[in-house]
Design a protein that fits this description.
Layout lengths: L3 E4 L2 H6 L6 H17 L4 E5 H8 L6 H8 L4 E2 L3 H12 L10 H10 L4 E3 L9 H13 L6 E3 L10
Parallel strand pairs: 1-2, 1-4, 2-3, 4-5
Helix pairs in contact: 5-6
Length: 158
């Protein structure tokens, strides 16, 4: 069975980024390399929360971003997931936005995803927060997914 990867909003956003700084061009390329070459090794999932984030606002390549996720299974946002979000916010693991980062982490944790793929290194893929996240998930009897960027989930080539 393939490992499961929860695709968070920043992945399609950076795949279609139009930012031209060298740093952003590099992140865009890493994202495209992973999506185009590595993603087939995984079972990809996402959520309605990600689709809503991408549907909101006026940003470039909106339809292309949504199309990337069109065929992915959507993890349901249930009562227990919402309760986990509340704990994450109460325990100050994630910002006070019940439809944002806490929800993505709760979904990936509740549904036992192996990885949560993101470029959000401030709130999610942040090594300084990982032990706190893991401890709270242990208390909740949840598996903690690996919180990684596409670069970290890329197989090395010989």
């Amino acid at each position: 069975m393939k490992p499961t990867v929860y695709i968070e909003t920043t992945i399609p956003s950076f795949y279609h980024s139009i930012r031209s700084t060298p740093e952003m061009a590099t992140v865009r390329q890493w994202t495209r390399d992973w999506w185009d070459s590595e993603s087939l090794r995984y079972s990809l999932v996402t959520s309605r929360a990600v689709l809503q984030e991408l549907e909101n606002g006026d940003h470039s390549h909106k339809q292309e971003k949504l199309a990337m996720l069109r065929d992915l299974p959507l993890l349901p946002i249930t009562g227990p997931v919402s309760e986990i979000v509340e704990v994450y916010i109460l325990r100050k693991i994630m910002p006070k936005n019940a439809t944002g980062d806490a929800l993505h982490l709760a979904l990936a944790s509740f549904y036992n995803c192996d990885y949560l793929l993101t470029w959000n290194c401030k709130h999610i893929a942040n090594a300084n927060k990982f032990n706190h996240i893991r401890r709270v998930n242990q208390i909740l009897h949840l598996k903690t997914p690996e919180l990684v960027t596409p670069l970290e989930l890329t197989q090395e080539t010989p």
